[in-house]
Amino acid sequence: RHDTAPYDRFSPQPFVVAQRMDVLYRWLASEKRVDTLTPSPAQAEPAPVVVAPWTALLARVPARAVVRAKSVHLEMGQTVDRDVLVATLVAAGYQRMPIVEERGELAVRGSILDVFPPQRARPVRIELLGDEVESIREFDAASQRSQGMLGHVVAAPPREILLSREVVMERDAEIRALVRSCGAPERAADE
Question: pTM for this one?
């Protein structure tokens, strides 16, 4: 579903973007399961079948390699640096908030990280003990109460536009040339 036209001044609703990223991630996850020879419980879910208008097929989406590279995989007992993990999630498109209520949000309170990946029905609370992942639990976004333990979680990117400072700097000359070709003032490239 597209609620804004391309190049419109308005951004699409976050839940619509999260739904699209959910489908992209599920396609990638099902593709990965097909490539593995060992069966796992996750293999029970087949690739999603999407029925969409032809205009939806025109929208550009991130490349598979980009979605895979920006996805964060966490398991119980894994060693991670909290600050690096937060920076990685923010770089993948998560928004820092005081509390997590919607997909694509991240909240940090001491050694507790709340993340709401686009492909999950409920957000996830990750508790660290030092640099070790001590527990991963689903929780209810409304009450903030834990629902159940998980052994692992994947935080796929929640946004379609995954820009980094390096990419923008790499493409600086192309962006400036495009601005000049449109007849816009040179300073428009910096805005």
Answer: 0.73
